[in-house]
Design goal:
The protein contains three helices and ten strands, in the order βββββββαβββαα. It has 189 residues and is of the alpha+beta class. It has two domains: 35 residues, no CATH class; 136 residues, Nucleoside Triphosphate Pyrophosphohydrolase, CATH 3.90.79.10. A four-stranded mixed sheet has the order 7-4-9-8, with helices on both faces. Strand 5 and strand 6 form a beta hairpin. Helix 2 packs across helix 3. The radius of gyration is 20 Å and the shape is globular. The model has no long low-confidence stretch (mean pLDDT 94).
């Protein structure tokens, strides 16, 4: 290795908002690299979100099937949604669980966060495991259309590993919950 010590830092020199929408804001920035050169950066500002894996006592969970416009296809995902401004992510997770599948959780376990696409986007996704579920009425947002499917958790893990589930947050939280449950049962650390 050479004698150059990498600082791994870029200094923002200028920012310009190009577009401000309902959900995202697009900026173009000028950044100074550690070697002094200037470069352009495109940044999508996003309020962040939350994803919840609701786990029934029988070991089943719920996926929501919905049409995702950017890809022109139906995806299967765990209940999730964006934060409303500076909203607390646990509160948002409980809200989304109620809205999308009509459940309340007696136990809500934080599993950490995920940087959705850190190369260009500020979105941070917070992940939760919900247990001790009480069922009520689903109450979707206006313009939200989805279908709820109950699946055994081991089947969800298999579908993730087979590449049938492609939503990144669903993949991440499924594998985190699998490991969490293994450790909880006395498995390896």
């Amino acid at each position: 290795m050479g004698g150059y010590l990498v600082k791994l830092f870029e200094e923002t020199v200028d920012q310009k908002v190009v577009y401000k929408g309902r959900i995202v804001t697009l900026r173009t920035d000028i950044a100074r690299l550690e070697n002094g050169r200037m470069t352009g950066r495109e940044v999508v500002e996003h309020p962040g979100g939350v994803c919840v894996l609701p786990l029934e006592e029988d070991g089943s969970t719920y996926l929501v099937r919905q049409f995702r416009y950017p890809f022109g296809m139906v995806t299967e995902e765990l209940p999730a949604g964006k934060l409303d401004g500076p909203e607390d992510h646990e509160k948002a997770g409980r809200r989304e669980l109620g809205e999308e599948i009509g459940c309340e959780a007696g136990e809500f376990i934080y599993l950490g966060k995920l940087l959705a696409s850190p190369g260009f986007c500020t979105e941070v996704l917070h992940m939760y495991l919900a247990r001790n579920l009480k069922h009520g009425q689903q109450h979707l947002d206006e313009g939200e259309f989805l279908e709820v499917c109950r699946v055994p958790f081991p089947q969800l893990v298999e579908r993730v590993m087979a590449g049938e589930i492609v939503d990144a947050k669903t993949v991440a939280i499924t594998l985190k919950v699998k490991e969490f449950l293994s450790r909880e049962a006395g498995g390896t650390k």
